[in-house]
Amino acid sequence: MKKLVLETTAPFQGLPELVAYDEGLFASEGLEIEWADREQGVEKKVEAEVTSPKGVDPFASHGKLFEQGKADMYNACEWGNYCRVQDTGAGSRQLGRRAIIAYSALVVAPNSPVFTPQQLANKVIGVPFYFGTHYIALHMLEGFLPRDMIKLCRAPNGSRYRLDALMRGEVDATTLTEPHVTLAEKKGCRTICSAFFHRTEVASARVDAETNAAFNRAVREAVRGSTRTSVAICTISSITMRRRMRRSPRSRSRTCARAALSSVIPRPSLRRDAAHLRLAQELGHAGRYRFPARARQHRGAELRPSGGGVTPLAATALHRRSPPARCKPRSACAMRADPRR
Fold first, then answer.
1. Phi/psi of residue 295, each to 5°?
2. Residues 244 and 313 in one domain
3. What beta strand segments (E) does 149-277 contain?
4. Does 204 lie in the same domain as 72?
5. Which residues of 3-28 are buried (b: 16+ CB within 10 A; e: fewer)?
C-alpha cells in the first residue's frame, strides 16, 4: 500500500477527499493517507500595512509542509498555485483542475455605507494574499473599478477570522466562503457581489500517473455516492436547496446550520468540530441536534443532526440566491387597452 501525506483541507474546498478518507475509499485503491496540519503556527491577524502580495510568502499556509518535505500533495486555488509552482523549491507541479468549485462573496459590515461595488473605491478590503479569496476580490471588482482604486490589505486565511475582523471594524470589506457568508448575512452584513473560482491539485514526484489515477478514483467514488456518507452529498437536489435558500434569512440560517452540523465531518478534521458547533450556535439552530455519547469522548466528534440535513459540499455548491423578479414596464397605450382597467 502506497503512503501519501496530504496537507489538511477544509470541507468547503476538499469535502470529497475527506469523505473518501473517512469511508476507506483511498484504502480500497491501495493508498494509505495521512494528514499534516498546515495551519499550525499560522498567524491569524489583519496586517493593514501590507497592501500588496509582493514580499509575502506564498507558502505561508498552503504548500508550507510540502516545501519542507513533510507532505506529498495539497490543493489550493488555481491562481495561487501558479505562483507556488513557479516559486517551488521542492519540484511541485499542478496536476490539473479539481472537480469542486468554490463559492465566495464580497461582504461589508451591517453599519457600512457601501451598497454597490463602485462604493468600495479606496475602501480597505481584507484578503488573504495568494488565496482564492484574494484573486476573486480583484476578479469581481475590476468590472466596476479601475485597479488603482481597489485597496487591499493582508487578512488571515480562514473565513471565520476575516468575518471577526470585519465585525470589529478592522477592514471595510472582505471575501468569505460558505457557511460564513450565510452567518455574515444573519449578523446583518451585506453581500455586495459574489462569484466562483477553480482549484487545482499540487503534487510531488512521488505521485505518478498510476497513483494519481487511484487517488481520483477514490474521490469520484466518494462523490458518486456508493457509501452512506457520500449518499448524503448527492441526495440534496439543487431545486430543493434553492427553494430552501429562497424562503427567508431564517430558512437560510437553518439550512446552513444543518450543513455545519452535518455528520460528514471525518476523523482528520475532528479538531474543527468545536468550530462547527460554535458556527451552528451562532446561526441559531444548534438546539435542534443531538450528539452521540462517543462524540464527547473525541473533542466533540461527529456531530449528528436529528433530522435530514445538508452537507457542506451541497451548501457550498448550491447556495445561490435567486435574482429578483423583474417586471417589464407596461406602456401607457397597453394600459389603456387593458380591458381589466
1. -65, -35
2. yes
3. 151-154, 173-177, 190-197, 199-203
4. yes
5. ebbbbbbbbbbbbbbbbbbbbebbee
Contact between 204 and 72 under an 8 Å Cβ cutoff? The reply is yes
- Tell me how many degrees the CA angle 194-196-199 measures, rounded to the nearest 5: 145
> How many angstroms separate the CA atoms of 278 and 267, rounded?
18
Interval 42-55: pLDDT, tens: 788 899 999 999 98
In a domain, 330, yes or no: no
The reported pTM is 0.66
Phi, psi of 73 (to 5 degrees): -145, 155
Beta-bridged to residue 31, according to DSSP, are 2
For residue 270, what is the DSSP state? G
Pairing of strands 173-177, 2-7: unpaired
User: What pLDDT is recorded for position 284?
Assistant: 58
Q: How far apart are CA 224 and CA 50, in angstroms?
A: 43
Per-residue pLDDT of 228-257, as tens digits, reads 443 444 333 334 444 444 555 555 444 444
Looking at residue 204, which CATH number applies to its domain? 3.40.190.10
- Kind of pairing, strands 173-177 and 124-127? parallel
